[in-house]
Amino acid sequence: MADDSVPRPTQAAGLREFWAGLGTFRRAGVVTLAAFEVVCTTAAALDLMRRPQHLVRGPKALWWPAIFVQPVGSVAYLTWGRRLRTSSDVTP
């Protein structure tokens, strides 16, 4: 039978302890990579929303969930999912 009188640390407390155990350099790295992910995902989503279908490699409907697969989805779209614009695609 489990003893319910012993206090158990919550998951949030465990995460706080883990974060506190990281060194300053590692914390800075985590924050930097998280910011990079947010910027890449936002850029990919805005580009996919604004780019015409004929300038996207593959169906746009498949790229939408793919760009939210972290950490590779947005980078994959920005690298391989877009076709280059030509002079005939640009409107004055």
List the helices and strands and how they pair.
Blueprint: H1 11-21, H2 24-50, H3 60-67, H4 73-81
Helix pairs in contact: 2-3, 2-4, 3-4
Derived structural class: mainly alpha
Give me the number of helical elements: 4
Q: Rounded to an integer, what's the Rg over CA atoms?
A: 21 Å
Strands, count:
0
**Biggest sheet descriptor:** none
Instruction: List low-pLDDT spans.
Output: none
Terminal Cα separation, in Å?
75 Å
Q: What is the string of helix and strand elements?
A: HHHH
Mean pLDDT: 86
- Strand residues, percent: under 5%
Share of helical residues? 55-70%
Shape: elongated
Explain the overall architecture:
With 92 residues, the chain is an all-alpha fold. It is built from four helices and no strands. The longest helix has 27 residues, at 24-50. The chain has helices at 11-21, 24-50, 60-67, 73-81. It has a domain at 13-73.
Question: What is the structure about, briefly put?
Answer:
With 92 residues, the chain is mostly helical. It has helices at residues 11-21, 24-50, 60-67, 73-81.
Which characteristics define this entry?
92 residues, mainly alpha, 4 helices, 60% helix, elongated
